[in-house]
Structure to design on (370 residues):
């Protein structure tokens, strides 16, 4: 992985984290970057900015007039033709203008982009959402996902931290109805998971309290991932194991203590991302809908991401369903566990703003989990 760091701060106190990019020379060639002239860099940056803003192919007269490049349209046109040969620009057959390719975006992100500052109102909205969220981890991540989608106008996702590597702090049992008990699993560092258990026998408040004390006395401090294999030796062989709730822990430890990663993906922003003009194309519309409906793609995507902030663009994404999209992610820590949040959208996205948004949000989510 090649590391890129923005020289521009997105807040008054912190600079954006290092961004990792693919090492594949087809997408991040140092030779191509160094060989671009100042004129080519200026024109590429202007084309990316204009295309992100308008979603329309960019012509030489538009660049000359809007960006005051002090170059004639003919000179700009010739330079654009050269960059098209280099694979940085594409020339849609229905238009005289050019659009950036995945490689063009890559060079922009790696070498030409300056990360925008988040506005005061955007920072306050993120801070208020995270600080004012309820304690339950699921509710926090749902609200943060919705906020990311609303601000970015893209598809937003958060993969909850993998708490299986954490140590069990305590188990809380709450009787919510006849024959139903809510199990709250609290992991060191404050991470919380809840699950509902159905019990086919009468249970009293005293049964619930007794089961909670016994389970905690025998399991607290254990690594969560180790509990299913060792729960019999830890809980069985005692008269208190006859408690109906304790029996459920003994019979279904995998259900209670093991996590299905697909169930830990929080996804939002379908309405926002479908408003992007790219999804007027039926094939692209179908592609984003399939992505929304198949959370396995998100799970596998996250497994392939490095720690920190990462940006992959178009064909850089290894999975076919993501070849028409760009993905910006950042990892965050909650206690001893690591989670990932990010956004997915068309390659025509405001990278300079969205990198700052994802990075800042991840830092605040991580701080909340300390």
């Amino acid at each position: 992985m090649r590391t890129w760091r923005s020289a521009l701060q997105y807040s008054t106190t912190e600079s954006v984290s290092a961004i990792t990019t693919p090492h594949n020379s087809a997408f991040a060639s140092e030779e191509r970057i160094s060989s671009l002239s100042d004129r080519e860099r200026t024109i590429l940056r202007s084309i990316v900015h204009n295309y992100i803003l308008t979603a329309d192919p960019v012509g030489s007269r538009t660049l000359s007039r809007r960006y005051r490049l002090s170059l004639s349209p003919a000179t700009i046109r010739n330079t654009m033709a050269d960059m098209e040969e280099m694979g940085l620009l594409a020339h849609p057959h229905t238009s005289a203008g050019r659009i950036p390719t995945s490689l063009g975006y890559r060079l922009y992100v790696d070498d030409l982009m300056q990360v925008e500052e988040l506005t005061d109102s955007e920072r306050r909205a993120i801070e208020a959402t995270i600080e004012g969220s309820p304690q339950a981890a699921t509710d926090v991540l749902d609200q943060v996902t919705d906020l990311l989608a609303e601000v970015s106008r893209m598809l937003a996702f958060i993969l909850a931290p993998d708490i299986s590597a954490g140590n069990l702090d305590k188990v809380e049992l709450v009787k919510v109805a006849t024959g139903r008990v809510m199990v709250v699993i609290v992991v060191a560092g404050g991470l919380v998971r809840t699950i509902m258990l159905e019990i086919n026998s009468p249970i009293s408040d005293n049964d619930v309290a007794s089961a909670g004390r016994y389970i905690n006395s025998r399991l607290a401090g254990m690594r969560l991932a180790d509990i299913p294999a060792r729960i019999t030796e830890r809980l069985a062989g005692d008269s208190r194991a006859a408690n109906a709730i304790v029996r459920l822990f003994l019979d279904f430890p995998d259900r209670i203590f093991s996590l299905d990663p697909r169930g830990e993906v929080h996804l939002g922003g379908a309405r926002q991302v479908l408003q992007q003009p790219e999804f007027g194309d039926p094939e692209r519309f179908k592609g984003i809908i399939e992505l929304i409906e198949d959370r396995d793609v998100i799970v596998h995507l996250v497994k392939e991401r490095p720690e920190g902030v990462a940006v992959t663009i178009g064909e850089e994404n290894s999975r076919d369903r993501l070849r028409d999209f760009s993905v910006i992610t950042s990892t965050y820590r909650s206690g001893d566990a690591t989670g990932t949040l990010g956004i997915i959208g068309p390659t025509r996205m405001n990278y300079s703003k969205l990198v700052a948004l994802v990075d800042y949000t991840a830092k605040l989510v991580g701080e909340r989990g300390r």
Residues 134-162+263-368 form a domain with the Beta-Lactamase fold (CATH 3.30.450.40). Confidence is low (pLDDT under 50) at residues 1-14, 23-28. The radius of gyration is 25 Å. Residues 46 and 63 are 7 Å apart (CA to CA).
